[in-house]
Description:
mainly beta, Allantoicase, EC 3.5.3.4, allantoicase activity
Amino acid sequence: MTDTAQIPEPRTAADARWALPDLAARALGGAVLAANDDAFAEKENLIRPYPVVHAAHTFGANGQVYDGWETRRRRSEGHDWAIVRLGVPGVLHGIAVDTAYFTGNYPPRISVDACRRDGHPALADLLDADWHQIVPVSDAKGDSRNEYDVDDPARYTHVRLNLHPDGGVARLRVHGTPVPDPAGFADLPLDLAALANGAAVTAASNAFYSNPVGAIMPGLPASQADGWETARRRTPGHEWLDVRLAGRGVVRVAELDTTHLKHNAPGWASIDAADGTDTFPLLERTALQPDTPHRFVLTGDRPATAVRLNIFPDGGIARLRLYGRLTPDALHDLETRFRA
């Protein structure tokens, strides 16, 4: 697995953080738990997965309808805020605050705080939590994607977006690296390729139609766009997807799901595994059917740290699942990282 073709990334290596998953995504279980005010537009819009839409001169009972979160004009000291539970806790690397279509009513400044409250804290617990500022009070522009770096190695479970003093934000994206609680992993089978368990897509030969991270997202695919799909290949060869596993482990079952891919599923697929620099076949080349969940029981017992999913010659995979067990050392490493 040494091919250098990569997932499409932002222009510079320094911007690679924006290719990291959005840990606040609703599809991962993120939620907007509270806001001090959402008089004009609902706080829940902050983490909607869809592109921002806008139709001018569409007025409801509270004024112009906005696809975002908007507070009333503040007439007192202070600022407005919204608390978001991350779907997958982790280390945060970048915050994107999108003010699309907010032109005369965007916040001139924002800040972001984060806290760690494991388990299932009530809102009262979060309000009293020890919040740490991860983005200081910073300027924001209207009708723009405002990006802010985060340099903090701590693991966080919640973020709080602050508007100074008030205004509207269309979307909030919290880019980071998942750090799951390994307590639930102990000697249990788990999906070693799941983003929620700490796996990551590291490279792909082609990602023309969709972000390959969709292949390791939780839940059932919602549509043809919910997964990884390549362009039509017009040259010899095949397409592939590289995944770093949640930890070193033995894979016992592989699932390749082509649900919703009726006319663009691959004809065949195989999986190669890597354990450090050693590589070996995990699943031999096998035929796939369109719009079908495929389940393959594997017989090998070699641990792996990464896999390459090969599809022939091209097409789409809605979900990749690799069920197995972590090695004791890998579980110990995850526990150490969780406690850091």
